[in-house]
């Protein structure tokens, strides 16, 4: 069984194999050192170190070389933990213990196919200093992901709810208020806020556990908490204000269908474009409410929170909204979590939100009889 077969077989039970193949191809298309920095908490070494070592072996089989950092929060046992991981990985896996302060050394190790294990020395420096080193390392390596592994996945509210996604632009101030997050997690989130001042805006940060590491890496939904800077979303009132070529490419790539020739000549009330055409939504104003004719997000951007940012903008701008999707559309479950109600027939699911009981039949009829947007049947 090849390395590709291994990850596809494993992830068939927890996600869509095409997603796993997409992310594996994406990671392999870049320089090895760009893949990910994985920061390991002491609790992992105490409770789930066996799972961590298994994860690292699996990633190595796939030709992926993460940079493993130890002691970012508490450096006391970092060197001991680094030696322990390296001993358990070798000789099957090539790994090298490196200096976290030496970006060039870390880059060489990862680029040459070694898992670089970087323990912080217990040298009396502050946690701010160590997070600054982490930021410089992520910038120097052009890291795609920063992953913080604890014994349990995700940031938790005081009520025990795990946050699946955090937009630092719109949610940070609220999350650091008293009694919102667990106290140590609030302190951690403040450090993440400092990181985002330095790292690339497209770098995402995940808080998860060794048990969920592979799901976080190879599926769009992930597992744990995804933290991102937040998307830049622009609203346009007519199609003349957007780059139609880019918008068409985004929609057709997302749906894997060709749009009809007249799609962009039809009436449209608003077009929402996220992050330089990495996501977009198109609405039509009707007497019943806004009809969402298209909602499209680039596949890579789906794992970065762009879809939810776009949806939140729609939620604010269009309190009365309805839309349809084909029965085979993989986003159906996602839509079900965001609607007030739905009906289905052999071809369509029709969803709505914010409509009165009297308005629902008219919305259903409008959606079911609206012209097709693609040359062939589409989600």
Q: How would you characterize the overall build of this protein?
A:
The protein is α/β, with parallel strands linked by helices. The protein has two domains: 3-228, Acetylglutamate kinase-like (Carbamate kinase, 3-Layer(aba) Sandwich); 233-369, Gcn5-related N-acetyltransferase (GNAT) (Aminopeptidase, 3-Layer(aba) Sandwich). It is built from 15 helices and 17 strands. The strands form three sheets. It has an eight-stranded mixed β-sheet with strand order 3-4-2-1-5-9-10-8, sandwiched between helices. It has a seven-stranded mixed β-sheet with strand order 11-12-13-14-15-17-16, with helices on both faces. The longest helix has 15 residues, at 127-141. The chain starts with a helix and ends in a 10-residue tail after the last helix.
Distance N to C terminus? 33 Å
CATH homologous superfamily annotation of the largest domain? Acetylglutamate kinase-like
Give the percentage of residues in beta strands: 15-25%
Tell me the number of strands: 17
CATH architecture of the largest domain: 3-Layer(aba) Sandwich
Q: Oligomeric form of this entry?
A: single chain
What is the tally of helical segments?
Answer: 15
Please summarize the sheet with the most strands.
Answer: 8 strands, mixed
Q: What shape does the CA trace take? A: elongated
CATH hierarchy, class of the largest domain = Alpha Beta
Overall tally of domains? 2
Gyration radius from CA atoms, angstroms: 23 Å
Q: Classify the helix fraction into a percent range.
A: 25-40%
CATH topology of the largest domain, which one?
Carbamate kinase
Residue windows where pLDDT falls under 50 for at least 5 positions: none
- Mean of pLDDT: 90
């Amino acid at each position: 069984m090849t390395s590709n077969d291994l990850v596809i077989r494993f992830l068939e039970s927890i996600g869509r194999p095409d997603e796993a193949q997409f992310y594996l191809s994406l990671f392999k298309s870049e320089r090895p050192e760009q893949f990910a920095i994985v920061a390991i908490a002491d609790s992992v070494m105490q409770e789930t170190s066996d799972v961590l070592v298994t994860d690292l072996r699996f990633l190595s089989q796939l030709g992926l070389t993460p940079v493993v950092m130890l002691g970012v929060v508490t450096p006391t046992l970092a060197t001991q933990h680094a030696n322990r991981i390296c001993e358990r990985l070798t000789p099957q896996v090539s790994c090298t213990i490196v200096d976290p302060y030496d970006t060039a050394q870390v880059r060489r190790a990862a680029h040459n196919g070694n898992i670089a294990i970087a323990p912080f020395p217990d040298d009396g420096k502050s946690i701010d200093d160590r997070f600054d080193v982490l930021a410089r390392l992520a910038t120097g390596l052009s890291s795609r992901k920063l992953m913080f592994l604890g014994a349990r996945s995700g940031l938790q509210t005081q009520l025990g709810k795990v946050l699946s996604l955090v937009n630092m632009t719109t949610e940070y101030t609220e999350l650091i208020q008293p009694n919102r997050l667990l106290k140590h997690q609030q302190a951690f989130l403040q450090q993440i806020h400092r990181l985002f001042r330095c790292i690339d805006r497209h770098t995402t940060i995940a808080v998860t556990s060794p048990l969920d590491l592979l799901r976080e890496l190879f599926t769009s939904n992930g597992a744990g908490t995804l933290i991102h800077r937040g998307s830049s979303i622009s609203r346009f009132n007519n199609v003349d204000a957007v780059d139609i070529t880019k918008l068409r490419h985004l929609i057709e790539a997302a749906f894997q269908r060709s749009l009809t020739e007249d799609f962009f000549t039809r009436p449209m009330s608003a077009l929402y474009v996220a992050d330089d055409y990495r996501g977009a939504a198109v609405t039509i104003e009707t007497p019943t409410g806004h009809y969402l004719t298209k909602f499209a997000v680039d596949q890579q951007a789906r794992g970065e929170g762009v879809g939810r940012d776009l949806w939140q903008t729609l939620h604010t701008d269009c309190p009365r909204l309805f839309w349809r999707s084909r029965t085979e559309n993989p986003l159906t479950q996602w839509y079900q979590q965001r609607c007030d109600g739905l009906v289905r027939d052999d071809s369509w699911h029709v969803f709505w939100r914010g409509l009165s009981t009297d308005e629902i039949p008219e919305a259903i009829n409008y959606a079911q009889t609206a012209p097709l947007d693609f040359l062939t049947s589409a989600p």
